[in-house]
Amino acid sequence: MIAPEALEDAATTSRVETARAEAAREDVESTRAQLTQAEADLEETVFFAPIAGIVTSLNVEQGENVVTGTMNNPGTVILTIAELDTMQVLAEVDETDVVRIERDQPAKVQVDALPNQELGGTVTSVGQSGRTPSGSGEGTNFHVEVRIDDPPSSLRPGMSADVEILTGRREDALVMPIQALTAQPGGVAQEWEEDAAKIASGEAPKRSQRKRSGSSKRGKSSSDDSSERTGTTSASSSPLNEDRVEGVFSVRDGVALFHRVELGLRSETHVEVESASPPLEAGQEIVVGPYRTLRELSQGDGVKPESAPRTRSRK
């Protein structure tokens, strides 16, 4: 015989277990439905690459969870595809140089990993908004995209490179080293220019007896290529130097002769002379030296070339 209390406890336990079993069956059905939906979603999920190329980076493996991107939170980057047949360089150009850069201008690319190989390129895009590196104290830079012509198979995405962009070209241009360029106060430059014209015409000049040691070079006439890599501005373009005149000193009978110049294209080392007063000619000797030395040089100062360094033999 079973006591009534024991029978009631057994009945209660049976009802509880039956309810648990029913809940478990419902969980199984719910999980089975979720599995079916997940399998259907998987079959319909296809990733389309915007370009045909080679996978250069795989960030997740099969079975890992990925996060769908939203407006405020970027999603998981699954992989990176690169089209190695078409390579481009993203260059940062100073704000003083970007104004002379346009699409379709030719460029030269020197990749650090390929030191003995110069690659040709073409400008494909010039950034419209600048960026200033935070905390660097540097000026504003603009992004310029350069497509590399016929990239070699050894070129890889992410490599570092230097870019030279040809912004202009002149045939038979009169060029001189940038180190010959000086800037003088406008009034002084005008007086020197008038005096130099008299000297050039053969009139007896008043010459200083001061002697200065400097380096003299001859100007040359050639095709001038202007390439942009770093910011280069003339002294007359600065608001602080509006009253100064750019010029160059030539050497005539051992003394300095000032020429006012109008400049054209320029590279890192040379600048084009569009006009000069008095005129300059190809092959004419000019004074080249540190900017401070040229700034202190005056019309009529005596100039003697520095002796070239000589090689010495050792026993």
SSE diagram, text form:
Layout lengths: L3 H41 L9 E5 L20 E4 L4 E8 H4 L7 E6 L6 E9 L14 E8 L12 E17 L4 E4 H16 L9 E8 L1 E9 L15 E9 L2 E12 L3 E8 L7 E4 L2 H6 L5 E4 L10
Parallel strand pairs: 9-15
Antiparallel strand pairs: 1-2, 3-6, 4-5, 4-7, 5-6, 7-10, 7-13, 8-11, 9-14, 11-12, 12-13
Describe this structure in words.
This protein is of the alpha+beta class. The chain has helices at 4-44, 95-98, 186-201, 291-296, and strands at residues 54-58, 79-82, 87-94, 106-111, 118-126, 141-148, 161-177, 182-185, 211-218, 220-228, 244-252, 255-266, 270-277, 285-288, 302-305. Strands 3, 4, 5, 6, 7, 8, 10, 11, 12 and 13 form a ten-stranded antiparallel β-sheet that branches. Strand 4 (106-111) and strand 5 form a beta hairpin. It starts with a helix and ends in a 10-residue tail after the last strand. Residues 206-214, 218-242 and 308-315 have low confidence and may be disordered.
Which structural category fits the helices and strands?
alpha+beta
The chain-level mean pLDDT equals 79
Number of strands: 15
Strand percentage lies at 35-45%
Q: What low-confidence regions span 5 or more consecutive residues with pLDDT below 50?
A: 206-214, 218-242, 308-315
Order of helices and strands: HEEEHEEEEEHEEEEEEHE
Percent of residues in helices comes to: 10-25%
What is the makeup of the main sheet?
Answer: 10 strands, antiparallel
Ends: how far apart?
A: 126 Å
